[in-house]
Amino acid sequence: MAMSGGSDDGEPMMEMNTTPLIDVMLVLLIMFIITIPVQTHAVKIDLPVDSPTPPEVLIEPVKNKLIVDTSDTLLWNGTPVSQSQLAGILAQTRNMDPEPELQFQPDARARYQIVDEVLVVIKRSGVTKLGFVGNEQYGSFQKAAGE
After folding, report:
1. How far apart are CA 43 and CA 47, in angstroms?
2. What is the pTM of this model?
3. Cys-Cys with 49: which of 68, 107, 126, 127 at CB 3.0–4.6 Å?
């Protein structure tokens, strides 16, 4: 680091050249930012098992579709069910070997509260194979709402 020798009036003037320090700090900052791993946002669903109640709704062995329509009705493979019936159906699917995949498709215009309650039922049921289908409808819904 360079030091200046003084000024013309005879007094010593000692100023430190901070430019190299700033350069090193910027390089270290950039390296630190690059080496930090990118945080991934994921929702971990560890689902406890609920007590089964026998529903009278058809359960497919490979995949089942749960739809929340615009009138906030739950449809299990096309058959209307209540949230309590859904809990029993999901408990039955957990006991199947292999466990069938649950495809969840909420309508873009369904109330968020109902969709949230259904997700809570799914989480409590212990389902491990869950997929969200029909996500492309939300892109077109946002475009239509923005126009």
Report:
1. 12
2. 0.53
3. 126
